[in-house]
Amino acid sequence: MTGATQRLYIGGEWVEPAGGHYEVINPADESVVGLAPEASRGQVEEAARAAAEAFESWSRTTPEARAAILDRAADIMQREFDPWTALARAETGAPTGIARGMQVGVGVARFRRYAEGALEPVEKGLPPQVTEAGPMGRASILGALEVRQPVGVVTCITSYNNPWANPAGKVAPALAMGNTVVVKPAPQDPLSVFRMADALHEAGVPAGVVNVVGGQSVEVGEAAVDSPHVDMVSFTGSTAVGQRIAEVCGRTMKRQLMELGGKGAAIVFEDADLDAAVMGIGTTFSFYSGQICTAPTRVIVHRSVHDRLIEKLTGYLAFMQVGDPAAAGTVVGPVISAAHRDRVESYIELGRKEGARIAHGGERPVVGDGRGFYVAPTLLVDCTNDMRVVREEIFGPVVVVVPFDGGEDEAIRLANDSDFGLLSYVWSGDSARAFRVARRLRSGGVGVNTIGRNMEAPFGGFKRSGVGRDVGSYALHAYSETQSIVWTG
């Protein structure tokens, strides 16, 4: 894939970009992975128009026909698994295991899941209602049916941390429900998303049902959001950008699904299994080099076990091998870009200035010949809840630790004292207490003694972490409108 020149995918055709191409850089060694297309506003509008024209026929296809296309696309992704894993690794800097299992592998799994999802019932009968004679007519028995209908044209704006799982989690359920899509991938690593379009094209998706446009210009994303042909925007990214998108959507009441920032609180009580807590918290450093909104980045630990937890976390970090994502033994790869590396490092320095102590990391690691955008996994301790490093999303391999002395109420207060509420975590040997605390956390999801996720459970955030829920059947609901049909009998 190295050196490939990519075209746009509009109306079932591969189209030369009006704005030319730009280089996609491998964050591990700064080599050029390929040339990505720069769409014009007019081409984005063309893609939205093609999706609108295709909607009527696609929304009326049988669920079985939609399922068959999604299944065939998954077959093609599986067939191309190895080269597309290599591309994902090159674009994102994710270690091979992450690129295989959490990127391409999850992409395949989500297409399989929503091939099945296309066959889920979209109608539900409601209890009949007896009405007496009156201004509305004679006495009657009214039946009612709840029907889920596709929304229409969905713009899917995807994040750079996972160019397979994230777009697959939008495109597959949207298509399963009978919507058409305009996909705008993150500019840092868009080539994998075009490979997803390859799979759908080969699988026989009708022209206009799937369109992929891209570019570095803000204008590309703006056009994909404000087009009059677009009925819904599904966005994953920063809260600041999500707020701007929501303002534009509000003008014409476009539907929205937003997965935004996170600052996951991990409450560790005095009776917790500290080794399990360390394993869970430690994933922040290894998964996508901390570039994951669900990470337990804000540890709230009882003072009685604070020092032992820090000791164990520091020991765990000693085994976090930073290096070339393609090399055996690498656990932590680079962050996505030089600009992002500088941003993460500026937060580490800010933490030091705010009074935090660096218990581990803090320096810039040198890998190979010194190229690449690497950040050392960093542990900041002696933190307080008013520090910016505790309150703001860093989106890198950085964990902050805040001790508490009291009981549940204090831990909950500290955890909830945040603008974010995506995923939080509780570690305690007392299951009743852990579940009691979980119910009081202002968070869209809570892991009790685990960082694992049930992929049928609703996913989304409270507060500034987002709007709406997806994953499992909830994604099918997110990409649909609910209609009621009432009749008399």
Automatic annotation (TrEMBL):
Which InterPro entries does UniProt cross-reference here?
Ald_DH/histidinol_DH, Ald_DH_C, Ald_DH_N, Aldehyde_DH_dom
Q: Is Cytoplasm tagged as a keyword?
A: no
Q: Which residues form the Aldehyde dehydrogenase domain?
A: 14-485
What's in the keyword line of the UniProt record? Answer: Oxidoreductase
PANTHER family (UniProt xref) = ALDEHYDE DEHYDROGENASE-RELATED (PTHR11699)
What protein name applies here? Aldehyde dehydrogenase
